[in-house]
Write a structure and sequence with these properties.
The chain is an alpha/beta fold and about 240 residues long. It contains eleven helices and nine strands. Strand 7, helix 10 and strand 8 form a beta-alpha-beta unit. Helix 7 packs parallel to helix 11. Bound molecules: adenosine-5-diphosphoribose.
């Protein structure tokens, strides 16, 4: 942490970006993807998380997201989500949360400035006109867009599709002072490249993960995010709480 604190003492109002992955929601009972018991052990990504998979078997894809939506609705934010919301309180408008997660646990924990780069489970999108609406229940091929009667899909970004808000994210990552990746394996691009982008512009990069991913972050704190975010928050408050 010494390197981090020495760096931050040179920054009066740092711009802070947090990138979260499935590991932040793991302690809320939502399965991750690539660990033992992860989602991709039971499903073929190609079958349930690609446009091609949807066109070949839409009912399987609708059901895959219906199951995940039900599970997400039963989940509660854990201490890691709340501590990330407190990070936002500490840094105010200089703070941006970019999440790869499609659950709404960050919102439930009080985070405000959030970009869901992989979409949101509790929303549906029209294939034809792109209208996005809140969607809490099951989604099926019978559900049609209220605006144009087109077919609806989960508002979740599939592989081979462009993540959302990329211009905004790249601009913010290229201009931040502190980049914190929490609970992500760092194997899916473009999110996996953000920390290097930030580092190349002079940011200090921090990884919070149950097990270090081996990526070249400046500061690495391993352990469950329900504990490690608070450890980081305590250090940051010692520098920025006047
Ligand atoms: N605290 C911190 N980290 C944790 C915890 C925890 N309690 N539990 C697990 N982790 C870490 C794991 O060590 C792993 O590095 O969370 C990471 C989860 O990695 P993945 O399952 O690969 O999830 P993620 O990085 O979010 O995947 C990125 O891949 O399949 C796509 O769209 C999907 O958004 C997802 C993207």
């Amino acid at each position: 942490m010494d390197k981090l604190l020495a760096f931050l003492k040179t920054k009066r109002n740092p711009k802070v970006i947090v990138l979260t992955g499935a590991g932040v929601s793991a302690e809320s009972g939502i399965r991750t993807f690539r660990e033992t018991g992860g989602l991709w052990e039971n499903y073929n990504v190609e079958d349930v998380a690609t446009p091609e998979g949807f066109y070949s078997n839409p009912d399987l894809v609708y059901e895959f997201y219906n199951v995940r939506r039900k599970q997400a609705k039963l989940s509660e934010p854990n201490r890691g989500h709340f501590a990330i919301a407190e990070l936002e309180e500490l840094f105010g408008n200089n703070f941006l949360l970019v999440t790869q997660n499609v659950d709404n646990l960050h919102e439930q924990a009080g985070s405000k400035n959030i970009l869901h780069m992989h979409g949101e489970l509790l929303k549906a999108r029209c294939f034809e006109c792109g209208t996005v609406i809140d969607w809490e229940g099951d989604l099926t091929s019978d559900d049609k867009c209220e605006s144009c009667s087109g077919p609806m899909r989960p508002h979740v970004v599939w592989f081979n599709e462009m993540p959302l808000y990329m211009d905004e994210i790249i601009s913010a990552v290229s201009d931040c002072d502190l980049f914190i990746a929490i609970g992500t394996s760092g194997v899916v691009y473009p999110a996996a490249s953000f920390y290097q982008m930030a580092s190349s512009k002079g940011a200090h990069t921090v990884e919070l993960n149950l097990h270090p991913t081996g990526a070249n972050f400046d500061t690495i704190i391993d352990g469950p995010s329900s504990r490690t975010v608070d450890m980081l928050l305590k250090e940051l408050r010692s520098v920025y709480t006047n």
